[in-house]
Design goal:
single chain, about 140 residues, alpha+beta, binds guanosine-5'-triphosphate, binds magnesium ion, nucleoside-diphosphate kinase, ATP binding, metal ion binding, NDK-like_dom
Length: about 140
Amino acid sequence: TNRTFTMIKPDAVADGNSGAIIKMIEEAGFRIVAMKKALLTQTRAGEFYAVHAERPFYADLCEYMSSGAIVPMILEKENAVADFRKLIGATDPTKADEGTIRKLFAKSMSANAIHGSDSDENAAIESSFFFAGLEQF
Ligand code: GTP
Ligand code: MG
């Protein structure tokens, strides 16, 4: 087994979709290793998405990701990173496959309901951004 990192984004939390999304995640075979509710400042959001600092949408992304509560989680499953990216669907919800979390809950390219790490290395970095070792069991 291995692990990935996810966070339910502000639009989905504000709409009351956290429970439905967590249910889909568990039904897809992921074990929740760590979970909490948190609020990012724009600065902390900027640090989390630092790889996108040069992209035209970076300022909007940081503003959006600090606009409301998020639910970060560490998840465990065989092939976790790739399988979770499949479960959430394409970044652009109009291109997301039927049955994916983004197809069901995302509203737009920025308000796209959920994040999923894109590699094992980034999963570890992103997990330690939100959770101390003692919270990871
Ligand atoms: P994350 O799981 O959130 O990392 O999404 P992703 O891996 O599918 O996409 P990526 O890492 O390339 O971009 C991070 C986030 O930036 C996306 O989830 C979008 O919310 C936002 N984003 C990416 N590309 C665009 C874009 O072209 N326009 C806008 N407005 N937002 C974008
Ligand atoms: Mg990404």
